[in-house]
Fold this sequence. Notes:
Helix content is 35%, strand content 4%. By secondary structure, it is mainly alpha-helical.
Amino acid sequence: xxxxxxxxINIDLWADEDYRALTMGAQWLxxxxxxxxxxxxxxxxxxxxxxxxxxxxxxxxxxVQIFGHELEEALFIVTDDTTEEVAIRSFFRHDSILAKPxxxxxxxxxxxxxxxxxxxxxIAHEVQRLHRxxxxxxxxxxxxECVPSIKTIxxxxxxxxxxxxxxxSINSSVNSSVNGLDNPESEDSNPSVRVSPTTNYLxxxxxxxxxxxxxxxxxxxCIKHPNDTTDACGACARQRAVYEEWARQNPEPxxxxxxxxxxxxxxxxxxxxxxxxxxxxxxxTCLYCPTRLEDNAA
Length: 298
């Protein structure tokens, strides 16, 4: 338990066009994360789709995974299937954590207790970004100066999910966590993705083969591995299944074939003389057919 007694949902969330573009199921899941009992002061909660599905009679584990995938692709959350943790990416920006020194101290402790290195790196990036944007702090007390432990996050290796580095340039400390996201023996390593009629453009609808946002092709791999990875990754496996389903519904058009040309039948004058019985004129042409004298000699 995190010790929180209430969750904050800002009313300006409904003015966010990215949030309004989500499906109803993804919005429900995001609001659950904002108010769930396991949410810590650094914005990290338990990521257990089977357990979350028990909170609603209409939900299944597959539904939760699909909605979670939608939220992650829209950059609202970051998940780690191995450590079973999920982070609300903009939690520090919208929950006024950094305006209260005592709460900031607790949040830094919670950040240090996060098992996923990848999630810690993502949170570090968000906090470092806030530090660059607001060097004077957010309240009467500047937490950047009065909370020494915050420097632990400011010096940590960051990971920007909006602009992920190429696979070869990821820092080794972050890369080790990214490459170890999924257990190759887990059931998520070879999932069966259910295409739902409530999914967004990345998880295609069953009613149309064309994504509703103008025909955007879904990515082949997850946002953590934009250029693929040799390690087992459940998110990549799910995204490949989505891409393969999209490719099945949207086959590449066959290359154009050469048009068949039909020639009109030859007239009597165009047909060769039977048994080479030509009548050649002085210029070497046959009076009755296209054959020339030199052709007949050959």
